[in-house]
Amino acid sequence: MHMLYNSDNFAVVQIEMPPVQAAVSHASPSPLTRGGYEIVDKFARKEFFIEGALAESFKQGVEALIETSPSVEEFDAYLESYAGMALQPVVMH
Fold this sequence. Notes:
globular; five-stranded antiparallel sheet; 29% helix; alpha+beta
């Protein structure tokens, strides 16, 4: 896990899992990459995990945003566009 972003409103953690060797019939199988991003909406006290194509789209959007040297408010606004997916309440153990 890597903390990528932490503001008063949001936290973003990248979760990487070791590649898994796919069981395929051809001679040179490629490993499947796994992982994604956990995004916590601190104000709503909810979180969600994205992976696959959605995670790749999120990553590309972040990379494009970083090129503009965004303020915290601009970055939080980008994360807000994903916050509607947050359904899981944040629970402390």
